[in-house]
Amino acid sequence: xxxxxxxxxxxxxxxxxxxxxxxxxxxxxxxxxxxxxxxxxxxxxxxxxxxxxxxxxxxxxxxxxxxxxxxxxxxxxxxxxxxxxxxxxxxxxxxxxxxxxxxxxxxxxxxxxxxxxxxxxxxxxxxxxxxxxxxxxxxxxxxxxxxxxxxxxxxxxxxxxxxxxxxxxxxxxxxxxxxxxxxxxxxxxxxxxxxxxxxxxxxxxxxxxxxxxxxxxxxxxxxxxxxxxxxxxxxxxxxxxxxxxxxxxxxxxxxxxxxxxxxxxxxxxxxxxxxxxxxxxxxxxxxxxxxxxxxxxxxxxx
Length: 302
What we know:
By secondary structure, this protein is mostly helical. It has a domain at 71-263: MetI-like (MetI-like fold), CATH 1.10.3720.10. It contains 16 helices and no strands. It has helices at 12-40, 44-50, 62-68, 72-104, 111-123, 128-138, 146-149, 156-169, 172-180, 185-193, 198-214, 217-222, 231-247, 254-261, 265-281, 284-295. Helix 3 packs across helix 15 (265-281), helix 8 runs antiparallel to helix 11 and helix 13 (231-247) runs antiparallel to helix 15. The chain is flat, with a radius of gyration of 25 Å.
């Protein structure tokens, strides 16, 4: 009825305040990255004079020019990171879904055993040394894409998230009805469960893709051949070399010291951040609608 206040309605002033608060929160999230981008385009002389600023005294592309000089190795590393992220995420999702589905089914004979393995490995990790020995010696993982993909293939946290999603969004009656109609386990999983579990799969997929894209420590352990080096490890190597040259420039002569001191040390760091963040940021829109729809599961519908 007109004149009656709707349920959950708020007044215009309260709504305005809420919008202002959300805008400020969004700015707090966006402004730091914009600041990083600006610094990456600042000259090293400007940073020395006034420090980090939104408006530098001199704009420069020297940081990106320095990275561009990597040439073919830069594009090769971009391809490596993209390939590792896509293939690793797909295989990880497959293994995670299969494991989570087994834990989700109450009639699975070894459900408690596999649940114990999942929780135990999440709480008590094997440690760096045993993991390195198994991957390097037993599995022979070195100088290959598998050396980066396999160690991160299964994550106990993702298994728990996926299993919880199955329990909260997949009714048991649906599985019983599929079994009555003669559907097998694989047919039920891939044609019934997975299509209605896209929000959960998208969430786990995004977390996994971020982990693969940002990984540099595992390549440092297992990769020596330059053709398998991912982008993050390449940029990390470059930053380490620049820092070393700048810190030890006094030991290599005055003229060389002047050249080394002019290297874009600070702006280079920010340029590396931009190169790493921007590509993976484009992956978010592909997962966004599934993640948002996952947030509404279980909501009350009028």
